[in-house]
Every structure is written in structure tokens, then in C-alpha cells.
Design brief:
Elements lengths: L1 E9 L5 H27 L3 H13 L2 H26 L7 H19 L5 H30 L3 H23 L24 H20 L1 H11 L1 H6 L4 H28 L10 H11 L4 H25 L3 H23 E10 L3
Antiparallel strand pairs: 1-2
Helix pairs in contact: 1-13, 2-12, 3-7, 3-8, 3-10, 3-11, 3-12, 4-5, 4-6, 4-10, 4-11, 5-6, 5-10, 7-8, 8-10, 11-12, 12-13
């Protein structure tokens, strides 16, 4: 009989309208499959469920602003991780870098809020959050550059250290013993046009453009790409690889520190061990789905936050277990991630030589 051979080969670049059509088809297919699953598991009308998801994200001006704020925070962390991931430095420490940035911010608010003029206080908050994020990111970078340590484990462990630092801060400095720090909005980031989240959104929008230019149009961005493709090639053409690693993680940590500043100084005005809320790991998926393109990350961040908001509303409206909403979210993400495989690779089936039974 003939033997079937299956090969997976990389595709040539797919034109933009075809890739758009494939992604749109994947989203439509995921919604259809989700509708079947919803009907089988709950007996609910899928149209009503999807309407509830839309209401959870866009049902009021407050929900819209909350959606945009969460998109901005997630996007900021994704922007921070992208230069490192593009360089194939697997920075899994975004969670901890955001937390220490937030811890530095809240420390300035708590101890210097009454001692400094407000403009000076803001400047100190920004510098403290950026410096804290840089320190937390550059330590694994130094060890990687000098001794080739495993950056994945190193950055993951730094997350747990950051969580314990925040827990210690709350236990030691919150005199009530509750472990809950009272919000301090009077020391937070300024409110513009009566919208508390607008400054956060504008800041992240500006950072998105700047990171795009940095990665696509500058020498540093070129060096990051070369190091990511091959460290040996980078060394051969004269690129100082350890310097690029450390410099890139300084940028990554600084942006995570800004995300911590936005979360603490611009949103919560306080801190807890769950302030980052897992966004440091979700941002990795945002970056990968967007293929490290900061402009595309706007869309992937929006999609993930929309699904989270919508799933929560579905659970509330229909009194369904959160697991049902998570299943729907997982199906949609599975289709979206799966279509990326078929955009990058194609499966070839060929007949091999005839074999005797």
C-alpha cells in the first residue's frame, strides 16, 4: 500500500487581507462552537449570552472607561515584555516588576505625600516606580549576560519575592493589622477632563507609538532582532550581546514600573499582593498573538480584556458558574491561537513509495 507522508513547512508571507480573512473566520467559527457548547451545557439562548458579554464591556460609560483602563494596563505590560521576548530573553517576571513599581509608588505616596509639593511628588513617584522596575528586571539580565543563567526561572522566582515584599510592607506599615492599605487618591496621578483613567490611557497610547518606533526604526531595535535570531551572528557582526541584553531589560523593567505606577497611582491608589492580577502572564499571550508588533497588541489586549469583562457579566446575569464563562473564553482563544499556526505553516500530504503488506 502507499504510505502517506505528512510535512509541516513554513509559509511565505501571507498578504494582509488573507490573514485578516483567516482571523475573522476563526473568530466566527469560535462563536459558533461556543454557541453550541453554551446550549448543551446551560440550555441558554446563545444570542442572549453574547448580548450579555457586550453589555459587560459596553453597557455603560463607566464600563467602557473600565474596559479601556484595563486594556491600557495590559497593553503597557505587553509593551514592556515585547523587547525582551523579541530578543528571546524569556522574561516571565512582568508580574513582579509591576508589583515592585507599584510598591515604590505607594511608598512615595504614603511617606512623602504630605512632605512634598504635588508636582515634585509626582516626579518622585515616576522616578521611584521606574527605578524599582529596572532593578527587578536588570538583576536577571546581568546574571544571564555574565553567567548565562536560566532567565525563565530567575524571573519567575523574582515574582514571588516581589509578592512577599508587598505582603511584608502591608503587615509592617498598616498599623490596624488588617493588611489592607487605605486608598490615597489625594496623592494619585492627576485627573484630566473629569475622567480618572484618561491620563493612563493617553500615557499608554504614547508608549505604544514610542515602542513601535524603537523596535522598528532604531539601531537598538535592529540589534534586538539580530540577537533574537542568533547570538553568534550578532557577535560576528560586532554587536555587544551582553550590553544589548542588559539595555533591553532596563527598558522592559522601566515600562513595567510605569504599569505599576498606573495601577497604583492612577487606578487603585493603594496596593495589595494581587494588584498585578496575573496581567504579567496574560501580557505574554498578548505579545505572542500580536507577533511582537506594538500596534497589533492594541487589538489583542482589547480582545482579551473584552472576553474577561464579558465572561464576568455572563456569570452574573445568568447565575452561571464562572467555569462556563471560562470555557467560552478558552474556546475563542483556542481558535484565534490555532489560526495563527495555519497562517505561519502549511501541512503537506504526499504519497510515499508503495509498500508490501
Amino acid at each position: 500500500m502507499n504510505k502517506m507522508n505528512i510535512h509541516i513547512v513554513k509559509r511565505d508571507a501571507v498578504v494582509w487581507y488573507k490573514s485578516f480573512a483567516v482571523r475573522a473566520a476563526a473568530i466566527i467559527a469560535s462563536l459558533l462552537v461556543s454557541a453550541v457548547v453554551i446550549t448543551l451545557l446551560t440550555g441558554k439562548n446563545p444570542i442572549e449570552v453574547y448580548s450579555s458579554m457586550l453589555s459587560g464591556a459596553f453597557g455603560s460609560s463607566l464600563r467602557i472607561w473600565s474596559l479601556l483602563q484595563n486594556v491600557a494596563v495590559l497593553l503597557c505590560i505587553a509593551l514592556a515584555l515585547t523587547p525582551a521576548f523579541k530578543m528571546k530573553f524569556w522574561n516571565c517576571g512582568g508580574e513582579g516588576q509591576v508589583l515592585v513599581g507599584g510598591l515604590a509608588t505607594v511608598s512615595v505616596m504614603m511617606f512623602l505625600g504630605d512632605a512634598l509639593p504635588y508636582p515634585v511628588l509626582l516626579l518622585v513617584m515616576i522616578l521611584a516606580s521606574v527605578l524599582a522596575g529596572v532593578i527587578w528586571a536588570v538583576l536577571p539580565a546581568i546574571f544571564k549576560a555574565r553567567w548565562n543563567t536560566n532567565e525563565t526561572l530567575f524571573t519567575l522566582m523574582m515574582n514571588y519575592v516581589a509578592i512577599q515584599l508587598v505582603a511584608f510592607f502591608l503587615k509592617y506599615f498598616v498599623k490596624s493589622g488588617s493588611g489592607i492599605l487605605t486608598p490615597m487618591p489625594e496623592y494619585g496621578l492627576p485627573v484630566i477632563f473629569d475622567q480618572p483613567y484618561l491620563l493612563n490611557i493617553i500615557t499608554v497610547a504614547a508608549l505604544t507609538v514610542l515602542v513601535y518606533i524603537y523596535l522598528k526604526k532604531t539601531k537598538h531595535g535592529y540589534e534586538i532582532s539580530v540577537v533574537g535570531e542568533s547570538e553568534n551572528t550578532a557577535r560576528y557582526i560586532g554587536i555587544n550581546v551582553p550590553k544589548v541584553i542588559i539595555r533591553t531589560l532596563v527598558l522592559s523593567g522601566a515600562l513595567c514600573g510605569i504599569a505599576g505606577l498606573i495601577l497604583v497611582g492612577g487606578t487603585n491608589h493603594t496596593i495589595s499582593t494581587t494588584t498585578a492580577g496575573g496581567r504579567g502572564f496574560t501580557a505574554i499571550m498578548v505579545s505572542w498573538l500580536a507577533k511582537f508588533n506594538p500596534i497589533y497588541m492594541v487589538m489583542t489586549s482589547f480582545l482579551i480584556v473584552f472576553l474577561e469583562k464579558g465572561a464576568g457579566q455572563v456569570s452574573t446575569d445568568f447565575r452561571l458558574p464562572v467555569a462556563i464563562s471560562d470555557i467560552v473564553t478558552g474556546i475563542i482563544l483556542f481558535f484565534i491561537i490555532g489560526c495563527e499556526f495555519f497562517l505561519q505553516y502549511k501541512i503537506l500530504v504526499s504519497k510515499g513509495r508503495k509498500e508490501n503488506d
